[in-house]
Amino acid sequence: MQWYTLFTLILAVPSSAIVRFHCSQLVTQRLDPLVNPGLIPSSHVHQIVGGNSFNATMDPKKDMPGHSTCTTCQFGDDFSNYWTATLYFRAQNGSYKRVHTIGNNQFETANGGLTIYYMQDAIYTSNQSSKVTAFKPGFRMFIGDISARSLEQAERFRQLTYVCMDTWTQRAPESIHFPNRPCPDGITISQRFPTCWDGVNLDSPDHMSHMAYPETGTFESGGPCPATHPVRTPQVFFEVVWDTKPFNNLTWPVDENNQTVNPFVWSFGDATGYANHADYVFGWKGDALQKIMDTDSYFNSTGSGARLPLQTIEQMNNCTQAPIVTEDIDGWLTSLSGGYQSQYS
Fold first, then answer.
1. pTM of this prediction?
2. Where does the secretion signal sit in this chain (predicted)?
């Protein structure tokens, strides 16, 4: 579901709460304090947005608002960090070139990055059926399977999808694999996190087990949370627009049968798209996020209450962080950083 559809729904659902905002790029490098804490460099390249206290360790006790001096997010109180793997184009000769993100609709002048949503279940149903509790300091989570290379392996993460954009408003149906044709206006990736918390653990060894989707498997069903995870949280939803346009007229690779194959590959080698994944570390200041969740009809950073400080896109773009892992990630590369090559199985 894209932003313009959500906007239509919210007009009909006055008791709901949603916020959509953008976060410009903070840094792109091989660091992953959630899956590879303390490892410099981490296994593969990520694009990171949010507070500039991001580092290789991110101790759960860290005061993220207190340690940050700026944030790339539109909400000045949001010092969370959000990140995904980066996307590359593989040419017919086997070399790789990084694909950049662009600002989403209404944020086209942003320095790449991600569009973030926090939503209540009323967005998908006719009324708000549950109390939504904001995350706590030290909370973090992960979604996806980095080793998935088939539909069977990826089916449990059907909330991670791709859309081939013909225009901003004309888009192909969602899929859980890479689009199989050139996309005139780029590829949008949607990453929807679980919405039921066990109410105890701020993290878990796999960074997923402390969270769950509703019993019926989807947030939008309005189904109850399982007894093991009784606390309803906002749905965190990343929307990432990859600017694949510069590669549409280049020669795409072919397989052993001389058939054109998808040329895009994640920074860890997945060329199927099934290993789509995302990371989230909560860092909102005070009770700012709870105020948003308790406010009716809160959309596109405006609403009837919870007036929180907003930044201009220029201020968001000015918050950057120098990479501590120095390597070429932007030239034509013979292999992906970390030594990865494209994998179709």
1. 0.91
2. 1-17
